[in-house]
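Q: Could you write out the predicted structure for this multi-component system? I'm mainly interested in how the pieces pack against one another.
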Amino acid sequence: MSLWEYANPVKFIRTTDKVLPWIWALAGVSLVVGLIWGFFFTPNDFRQGSTVKIIYIHVPSALMAINAWLMMLVASLIWIVRRHHVSALAARAAAPVGAVMTVIALATGAFWGQPMWGTWWAWDPRLTSFLILFLFYLGYMALWSAIENDDTAADLTSILCLVGSVFAILSRYAVNFWNQGLHQGATLSLDKEENISDVFWFPLLVCIAGFVLLFIALVFLRTQTEIRARRTRALLAREGQA
Amino acid sequence: MSALLLRDLVLSIRAGGGFGLGLAFFLIVTVLVPFGVGPQTDLLARIAPGILWIGALLACLLSLDRILALDWEDGTLDLLATAPLPVESIVTVKALAHWITTGLPLVLAAPVLGVLLSLPLPAYQWVVISLALGTPALSVIGTFGAALTVGLKRGGLLMSLLVLPLYVPTLIFGAEVARRGAEGLTVQTPLLLLAGISFGVIALLPFASAAVLRINLR
């Protein structure tokens, strides 16, 4: 029993079919609990007022936007090294989810920034590098849809993902150098003494868990869809020949 | 390798529309900016280094599809790939030829266009130095984009979408060198970082371009 067994599409679909309802349910429960807890049962921050509550969407979506790209990177590497189709399709499936997470993070950040910083947008390092990350997502998805041959598309996009990761990190540090920002430092870290207060911390954790589960569920579902779409195309092609 | 380089250079000079076009585009962009933002000298002087950098970048971008597309269409690329030359050196030579025909003229033309934008005097040398250091990176990154989209029928727009985000670090450091030079600040840190990006890209990216080109030629 190894992880690579799930490279078999049939096995992948069978297993994820069993697991998916549970993940959906868990994601739903933790999102509902986390958001309601966060929105209605936490105190307002004494300086930020009720706007502090946007953190329950902003932080998890920003976290997932970066981790979705990381997941695509790993999946692309697996495709390049071991050539498992499920892995390439999972990378493809994750891209739009990651792009949407990036947009959510940018939009909620703007809604928060308007009353707090007095501006919707600032050319701050974090904001800028997120915008660049969004552009990378767009390019990646555009390349997938532009190429007709599936294997060629998988190869090219996985190399783009590798090169893009390097450049995304480079841009991250380049904009850091270019402009010292408005955005506060990390809210969450494991090793820092001074962290966010526990009152906000626990509902935030629940929300993050909800977003992670939601992401997993969406990627599983979209990968299944890709596999089935490809199978349908193969069947149609065979019918056409006969 | 040198034969291939010579062939590419001769082709781009003799076959119309390659050599001078990037330069003319650079000129047009720089001339259009004062029309857009107004002719105040102090404003232009402040944004001149950035305009020169963006103009050079766009001129580079527009000439990218000529790097590989023509050779792809008439089958030269297939022959080159079967030649004893490794694909890595083919893409390196292609990038070098692109730099000589597009990047180098841009570097040389930048001071002349700087006059039009009333670029402050100390900035001239830094604009030229930063462009000379940065444009090779633009050519190499562009060759990667060209190799990615070479098989596509309408790859031009897609290539811009893919290549422009990759240009961001080079643009930031290059424009920063020029801006600091214009303001008389010390330029050492961004200059070193720009050089680092340039050399790193030249050393590593041809391998990615070659891998991509092999996939596309399959």
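A: Regarding packing and overall arrangement: The mean pLDDT of chain B is 86.
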